[in-house]
From TrEMBL:
<feature type="domain" description="HTH gntR-type">
    <location>
        <begin position="1"/>
        <end position="69"/>
    </location>
</feature>
<keyword id="KW-0804">Transcription</keyword>
<dbReference type="InterPro" id="IPR011711">
    <property type="entry name" value="GntR_C"/>
</dbReference>
<keyword id="KW-0238">DNA-binding</keyword>
<dbReference type="Pfam" id="PF00392">
    <property type="entry name" value="GntR"/>
</dbReference>
<dbReference type="InterPro" id="IPR036388">
    <property type="entry name" value="WH-like_DNA-bd_sf"/>
</dbReference>
<dbReference type="Pfam" id="PF07729">
    <property type="entry name" value="FCD"/>
</dbReference>
<protein>
    <submittedName>
        <fullName>FadR/GntR family transcriptional regulator</fullName>
    </submittedName>
</protein>
<dbReference type="InterPro" id="IPR000524">
    <property type="entry name" value="Tscrpt_reg_HTH_GntR"/>
</dbReference>
<dbReference type="InterPro" id="IPR036390">
    <property type="entry name" value="WH_DNA-bd_sf"/>
</dbReference>
<dbReference type="InterPro" id="IPR008920">
    <property type="entry name" value="TF_FadR/GntR_C"/>
</dbReference>
<keyword id="KW-0805">Transcription regulation</keyword>
Length: 240
């Protein structure tokens, strides 16, 4: 390993061991470099790398601090990759999202509260007046985010937000609008809500899996990558 890699590993170890906590300031550069046994240049490169992934924050004239280490902050780098996806990568991301969304729906059904059900009802009702792709993106974002939040797992919520950026959602909803599949997709949201209201975790999970898989299949067809011999990958009949 290079000195830079050693410095990164050492700082990571300090955070893991509780020597450094969120919001803590790192020791002065010379002191830390001597402690870690690395040159100042290698330490600076290590700090720069950790700053890039939002583990550290360099405040000019003040020092270097550990960030909040909140999931949404640490996952921002993945969000960048999501937004510069190609078709093959996007399909793979939806495969991951299918698994995570199903887990979130299961948790939401298990922990459903009247407040959650009311909130999801309001979101569905507002979708009736959607007049643009932007409106549909907003509806979809809030609907899925509320379900993920019910799981009470910040990393699950953060991963789903990251894999479902507004850029990706806009592309999907634009395609669904052109294909005449918006009403069916919103009806799937209704079915998921009904399962959550009933507290049926298995059904909520299955419906969410089917919901995301339908979009995934549409993407495969749109990208010209689906295999007509594989029944799992047949394009969804959107009635167009």
């Amino acid at each position: 390993m290079s000195q830079t890699d050693n410095a990164i590993a050492a700082i990571k170890g300090m955070i893991q061991a509780g020597e450094l906590h969120p919001g803590d300031r790192l020791p002065p550069e010379r002191e830390l470099g001597e402690r870690l046994g690395v040159s100042r240049n290698s330490l600076r490169e290590a700090v720069k790398s950790l700053e890039t992934i939002n583990v550290l924050s360099v405040r000019r004239g003040d020092g270097t601090y550990v960030t909040s280490l909140e999931p949404t902050l640490l996952l921002e780098g993945i969000s960048f990759l999501v937004d510069i996806h190609d078709d093959a990568t996007l399909i793979e991301m939806f495969g991951v999202r299918r698994v995570l969304e199903a887990a979130a729906a299961r948790a939401a059904a298990t922990r459903a509260t009247p407040a959650l059900v009311t909130r999801l009802e309001e979101i569905l009702e507002s979708s009736r007046g959607a007049e643009s792709v932007d409106d549909l993106v907003e509806h979809d974002t809030v609907f899925h985010r509320e379900i993920a939040s019910a799981a009470r797992n910040r990393y699950l919520s953060g991963m789903l937000d990251t894999l479902s950026s507004s850029t990706v959602r806009a592309r999907v909803w634009r395609g669904l609008s052109q294909g005449g599949a918006v009403e069916r997709t919103l009806a799937e949201h209704r079915a998921i809500l009904d399962a959550i209201r009933a507290g049926d975790a298995d059904l909520a999970s299955a419906l969410m899996t089917t919901h995301i898989a339908g979009v995934e299949t549409w993407l495969r067809g749109a990208a010209g990558r689906w295999d007509p011999e594989d029944p799992r990958e047949r394009p969804v009949d959107d009635g167009s």
